[in-house]
Amino acid sequence: MLFLVYLLFFEIGSYSASITGSKELKLLDEYNLIDQWYEDDSNREYFTFLSKRSSQSSANRTINELYRDSYMEIYKVQEDQKCIPESFGYTDEDSLLNFPRMNFPKCADKLNAHKTVIEIDVEKDQLIMNCPDGDGWYYLGCNQDDELIGEDNYHGKKQKYPGHPVKLKNNEEWAYGTCGENFPLQGATYINRPKESSKERAKNIMKTIQAQMLNTKSESQTRPLTVLILTFDSISRMSFYRNLPKTQKFLSSLSPEKFRVFDFKIHNVMGDGSIPNVFPLISGRALESVSKFDAEKNKKNKTDLLGSASIWNYLKSKGWVTLFGTEFCKDYFAKKLGRKPDVDHLMTGFWCAATDLLNYDDSDTDQRCIGNQNSHVYSLNYTYQFIQNYQGINKWAHIMSVPAHEKSGTVVQTLDDDLLVFMKKFLETKDELLIFLMADHGMRYGSWYKIIDGYLEHKLPMLFLIGSTSILQDIPDAIENLSHNADRLVTKTDLHRTLKHLANIPYFRSFNRFSRYEYKSWTAEGDAISLLIDKVQLSRECSKAAIPKIWCSCPKLQALERKVFDGRQTDDKFILEIRKIIENIAEMMIYEINQETYGSFYSEGWRICQKITMKKIDYAEWSRYDYGIHLYKVRVSINEDEKVKYEGLAMVSERDIIERSRKTVFPLSSVINDGKKNLKILYLNRKGPQSDWCKKLSFGKKMFGSLCLCNEYQEIEKYNPIAIEKILNES
Question: Which positions make up the signal peptide (predicted)?
Answer without folding.
Answer: 1-16
